[in-house]
Amino acid sequence: MAVDARSGHDEPDERPGRHPGATSAVTDDSEHTTGGDDGSSEGSGTGQKKQRSFWKELPLLIGIALLLALLIKTFLVQAFSIPSASMQNTLQRGDRVLVDKLTPWFGSEPQRGEVVVFHDPGGWLEGEPTPTPNVLQKFLSFIGLMPSSEEKDLIKRTIAVAGDTVECKKGGPVKVNGKALDEPYIYPGNTPCDDQPFGPFKVPEDRIWVMGDHRQNSQDSRYHMEDKNGGFVPVDKVVGRAVVVAWPLSRWSTLPVPETFDQPGINKAAAAATTAAPAAMGLVGALPIVLWRRRLTSGRTAG
């Protein structure tokens, strides 16, 4: 302000459009405001206008942020809290995992070895206590900034998918399509299935067979073979695949598919089904041509 005042006062006649002898409004204003109370009030007024502008925009920014959080939770990624020890040591009680919800929108289905979150397919969590969150917790859970404690969801490892034959005898390993699984992720001291042997079963269409990594502390598919789904989990109940342990930071890690699910021959049933489908389609397509040729042949013979 002092520089402006000196510039306006010392060189009034050099400004374009100014007549000689005319009174300088800038000079007069500068003389009044230099070192006066009015100048400080104008300065503070300008600052107040900027603050008011920010506070007007703040609700809009918050609204956009909440909308983005809700969209991310609904379509992209959602956080879930691990409430039990059924997936130890892969997941510990209290861990927070991020679940990929995007790929299922493009038709992706659970694959063998993936850790998946799914809605209770029917009575699996019956009798389990459900915490009662407060209003703030409910709101934060709704927009995805906090794991929900009200939703009845489970987290297990996918062992077999539609078309697979899965079994496990007491004292033996879990087998998928006749291939024994090497399961280093099983909780130390546990057996693959000695507490609850099963199978062999063929996994129905649009179903998966799931098991916890802490086998002797997991009420998984083995313990629900008498329910309406036969222990299988409908694919449409799957929320998504858990891809990252995000919290606590000391346990940050990814959740890859173990190598045992990539061993040769384990995909034989799926490969056979994939091969059979084009063959069947080819047969259906060729049938009209064969019939047409036979008709032509019989016509020429009769003639």
Describe the model.
This protein has five helices and twelve strands. The model is unreliable at 1-44 and 271-303 (pLDDT under 50). The strands form two sheets. Strands 1, 2, 3, 4, 9, 10, 11 and 12 form an eight-stranded antiparallel β-sheet that branches. It has a four-stranded antiparallel β-sheet with strand order 7-6-5-8, with no helix packed on it. The longest helix is centred in the first third of the chain and has 40 residues, at 37-76. A hairpin with a 5-residue loop joins β5 and β6 (174-176). The chain is 34% helix and 19% strand. By secondary structure, the protein is an alpha+beta fold. It is elongated.
Derived structural class: alpha+beta
Query: Unreliable segments (pLDDT under 50, ≥5 consecutive)?
Result: 1-44, 271-303
Give the CA-based shape.
elongated
Give the termini distance in whole angstroms. Answer: 114 Å
Specify Rg, calculated over alpha carbons: 35 Å
Number of helices: 5
